[in-house]
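Deliverable D4.2, example record:
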Amino acid sequence: MIHFIYILECSDKTLYIGCTNNLERRLEQHNNSKWGAHYTKIRRPVILKYSENFETLREARQREAEIKSWNRNKKIQLINKKE
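Output generated by the structure prediction step:
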């Protein structure tokens, strides 16, 4: 099973970092369902800005933690490398 980390840009321009095994479904949840994270529910709509995939949940969680520890500018640099 593939696992993803992702960065969302919220309507207030803040960034949200998460992890999932179904990126499409999770993005739908963040934007339209009660199962989205509280942080994104009050900042809808959200836009997927970046994602990476991993073979194991452990790898994905480690990368998620790494990116969450970065400052905003470093996260934006990562996003811009993929665009």
